[in-house]
Give the backbone structure.
Amino acid sequence: MCGIFGVVSDLPLVDVLLKGLKRLEYRGYDSAGVALEGAHGLFLERTVGRIESLRSALEEASRGIFQDASIGIAHSRWATHGAVTEANAHPQSDGETALVHNGIFENHTELRAFFPQKKWESETDTETLIPFISEKIRQRRAFLTAVRESLDMVRGGYALLIINKNFPQQLIVAKNGNPVTVGRGKGAFSKSFFVSSDCAAMAPWIGEKADLEDGELCLIQKGPTESKCSFFDSRGVPLAKDWEPFVFADNDCDETDDFALKEIHEQPGLIKERIAAFDQGAFANWGARLAAKDALNFVGCGTSFYAGLVGAYWFEKWARLSTHAEIASEFRYRCPVLPPKSLYVFLSQSGETLDTLKALEYATKHAVETAVMTNVLHSTMAKKAKDLLPLHAGPEMSVISTKAFTAQLAVTACLLLETLAVQGSAHRSALEADFRNVPALLRTVLSNGDAMNAAAEVLATASAVIFLGRGLCYPIALEGALKLKETSYLFAEGYPTGEMKHGPIALMDASVVSVVLAPFDDLFEKTLSNTQEIMARGGRVLFLTDTQGQEKIQKQLCEAMAAGTVKIFLVPPTGELSKAFVYGVAAAQIVSYKTAKLKGRNVDRPRNLAKAVTVE
Ligand code: F6R
């Protein structure tokens, strides 16, 4: 989960190191640290909190002496082993070896037992590798050999950057399971090398990149004029690697602090672009392929899973194709039977979510057809994909997933329309017209600021919030509850409206608000009846509905409306495809964003979260 970043340079590197780390902060941001090698030896600084705290601490502690550092490694942490403390922050070091780690050494308890006398300084799994390396160096092993032999002891995943004060001109990179990329500098930095768990973090400084594969190592050596970078396999045999040109569409990620709102507002434009890609035939090959399948499956985590669930509702209803959506962390361990004539689509904004990646590996091993729908085209999943469905949503910087969700819906809608075309479906043209209307509908939703503020005011006073939806609105209710809990830290639950009476209704009292997603469709009347059951128990209700729904509600619930226990948040009338987009943006994103802001939360960096979840 954590972000790691390293620089070997003939130029002052501390500022670059901190800027790179800031670009990686989305991976985890509970604590951060750097280790620097230079003429003054090995220097370490770590702080709890964001990169800004690290920058101040570093400026104060180093008093500028490390302006001459030629190698630096840095880390932004999402705690796994050990609480959020300075001692548990990375780099971990024994004063000789310092390293930063993304991943988990699963056998850390066994590793500790090799050094029964040692006084450990942290509770981390990471620290347990260090004495092996330092001991081998004391036994006069070369640095690379010491690292390689020590890694033989480890079980688990890692991307590691390691320095040692006896080898002040060397940085070692090692990979197993967790991604790491080496970048070659460009422009003023043409003699520098960069390393990171996400090449987007190195984007401003690199022109070429080389990804490490599992078991590989890299040694970057600072020379008097030029630095040198060599790659090795797990036995230490040199490897020839090709450098690929690196091009990256940046998203100005250094300075802004409210990406969530910016990204929410990008959605109408992004969906328009997907519709244009659809018109140019970008999905044309998929129709016949999907129409020939016996089953379709979507697999993902969190918001990506909910997008898959919407896809499952769409495909079953309109293409009459047996379709399921499943949570990746469950999929893999329940040993599913994968029918041969099926397609498994793995959804992941980041393309790095470990549960989804492992589920993809499981499906690949069982020889079914797979495809990866992702936003990050240089990600591990994109590289492993047999077929790629790019989201083209642009970098999603806020930790909460918004535009990637609607891009997933848009790509899925394109797949559905292509399938319906091959099937000669009578529903296709109406669905297509509705899909084309999505950008305009979202613009209407996004311009409705005052109504959204009023809705947020209702939620901000609740002790708990239950999002309710029937049919297609059920996955949106799940997404709404996820968005609200992660942004505002309110307890929130998503439920199928019809299921309320089977238990959750016991929770109802005046402190609980139910957000009822109620488009005026064939399920509206049933939704309204279920809502009355809630109100009869004193629960407060916030309806999201269209004008026809509003009319009915006003007629039937006029007393509750007058008493203020029922409120309506109006959204435009929707069709069968646009419904998921409109209610997804309104109920899940906007309402959550506004509520979180009212509560003074940091929407881009909610507590305890990270953007790419690279642990199981
Ligand atoms: C919610 C959120 C998470 C992610 C989940 C999967 O706002 O961001 O629930 O959707 O961690 O991440 P990806 O899509 O990168 O696999």
Notes: Residues 41 and 395 are 38 Å apart (CA to CA). The mean pLDDT is 92.
